[in-house]
Amino acid sequence: MQTDQIIQGVTSGIHQQPDGKSWLLVTEYSTYALGVSEEGLLLQLYWGARLPLGTDIAAARLPRERSSQDVALTLAPEVYPVMGGLRYGEIAAQAVFSDGTRDIDLRFASAEIGEKQGLPELRLHLRDAAYPLEVTLSYRVDSKNDLIIRAASFHNLGDEEILLERAFSAAWHLPQQFSSRRLTTLAGHWAGESRVQQQPIVAGSVQIESRKGVTGSTAYPWFAIDTQATEQQGEVYFGTIAWSGNWNLRISTRITGETTIAGGIHEHDFAWVLAGKQSFTTPDFVAGFAEDGFNGGRHRLHNYVRQHVLPQPQASQPRPVLYNSWEATTFDVSEEGQSKLAEHAAALGVELFVVDDGWFPARNHDHAGLGDWRVDPQKFPNGLQPLVDRVHGLGMQFGIWVEPEMVNPDSDLYRAHPDWIYHFPTRSRSEARNQLVLNVGRQDVQEYLIDLLDKLIGDHGVDFIKWDMNRPISEPGWPEYVAAGHNAREIWVRHVEGVYTIMDTLRARHPNLSIESCASGGSRADLGILERTDQVWSSDNTHPDARLFIQEGISHILPGRVMGDWVTDTPSDRVQNEIPLTYRFHVAMMGMLGIGGHLLHWSEEDLAEARRWIAVYKQIRPLVQDGDQYWLISPSATAGDWAAVESVAPDASEAVVFVYRRTNPFWETTPRLRLQGLTPNSTYRVQLMGQPDAEPQQYSGASLMHQGIALPLSRSSYASCILHLQKVS
């Protein structure tokens, strides 16, 4: 984050101007301004670098109408444009009133400034000119991280139903400018998530979305827009939607250069019946502005996630080194086999042992058992407790895998409650991975899952659950809901709210419980799920070549303490394609370190090396998990041949640098690497980690940042190193 002098003048926070109809939202390095026009419309007046004076902001006025095809209402930067009147640009909301009117006319009514979730909040109330609909726009300001958190609440003040058909969280506007802008997004697929994509912004609309009922791996609800920015410098606007279901982000640009970003819950197959005196609130849309490039955006979102999103007390504690048994044993789970793995894991310094899929009845393959969350008496004839006690006795926490939203047709649960599945009575029930999706929007399904999981956790002393979700929703029918007079198109929201309810209840009953979010890898790694989980499994792909790209992308949103990575036996053709264990550890150490290899098959040399790197990781863990992260070399820019990441303590007293080179076919020397975020006039002691015999060196912060440091890499392929910097007192 910038370290230059904060601009004097208007202080950070929310300021209402003397007219009572315009406001400044001021952070340490940015200003966002909005105001009410003579017509009663709320307009965005400015968003960008911090301005020193309130008088720097122009009054709220509709733009001049260019023609009957380019009307003022369409050209206006409304903070929450709705479907109604002469609006033909992006819209944030649309509704149908009881008399069939499909047009909204919102006008400013009132405002107040308060506080919500520890942050100052501006609440702006808009009311329809003819119908009893009030929309409250919430603006929370995280001044230290230069972020604005927006949401919208719809209130039916009357008695007759109002049908919401679109309810986005916010619309943001970037002004017209001479130079072109660039859009950065994250795209991918299963085992190839969150890869950085960049494209020039031209006239038209770009849509990124998920319609699977889950956040999804095809795209991520995040954007960044810049003008010739780099990782280290340049203006960047960025944002993300805190929602774990269907979402939509639309970036629309006029030929004249103005850009609008609108997004929230996807309008695809969406409806919400707003009964009399009832309300509906959208998820948060978190956005910010940085002048210090993409790394500046990272720092702000990382700090926000740590400070305001992740559950406590876990967010203030180091995330443990993890071992997961899946790749070692798959479904061949037994008390004896898991105990042997646990003993090996504990000897390496592992702190959390997780039993993955296969511990419940009929689970010898993925065709049966989902939904029957009780211990398999054949695999665990003495119950689960002896294994839990053994793991705890070895000084580790105990974790277990579950997939609560799913059911196999071959299960006791499905045979008892086939009506608990999303379905249409006249259609077949599509299976994916041999499973169907439970309707967790139903209260009885929520109660069933809460009861089972509560007993599993409480009766056995479970410390951690890996919550998986391995297929999207299909046949989104709810016959009983429709028969009761409700609209089944609400299920996309009610499913997510059901997941949140189950997790929130379990955490309330078990305050020390940790949860990992997994959905076939990284398909549910959003800020909404992170309000109730502690980490995410960012991909099922553990190949270090792939992970550098995946981890670069997800790092735009998630701090190191959240992103899980394992050292595994991938690639499987190790005889032909050997990747050194050191390199695999170094890649996995960039986040929350885990191990997934079959430890019983590792050599004594491999086990000794694993012990060494786990000890190193624990030494640098505070920096990796909670430091300011700088991507010094992007794998996306080097075709994966190079990558370098630095994590710096908030006071710049310490740093750790990871460097990776995949290949060196020409045996060329390595350029010096320039670091970031250090104190120029301080001296730093630089130690090569994992090699205690290596002689430490000393350099000034200025030298490390401007001249760079020579890297101690061999000329071989898959060369890597870790450098630890400490300020010399």
TrEMBL record:
Catalyses which reaction(s): Hydrolysis of terminal, non-reducing alpha-D-galactose residues in alpha-D-galactosides, including galactose oligosaccharides, galactomannans and galactolipids
Pfam families for this protein: Glyco_hydro_36C, Glyco_hydro_36N, Melibiase
Residue ranges constituting the Glycosyl hydrolase family 36 N-terminal domain according to the UniProt record: 40-275
Domain of life: Bacteria
Domain Glycosyl hydrolase family 36 C-terminal: 642-725
Listed EC numbers: 3.2.1.22
Key words of the record: Glycosidase, Hydrolase
The keyword Hydrolase appears for this protein: yes
InterPro entries named among the record's database cross-references: Aldolase_TIM, Alpga-gal_N_sf, Alpha-glycosidase_related, GH, Glyco_hydro_27/36_CS, Glyco_hydro_36, Glyco_hydro_36_C, Glyco_hydro_36_N
PROSITE patterns the UniProt entry points to: ALPHA_GALACTOSIDASE
Protein name from the UniProt record: Alpha-galactosidase
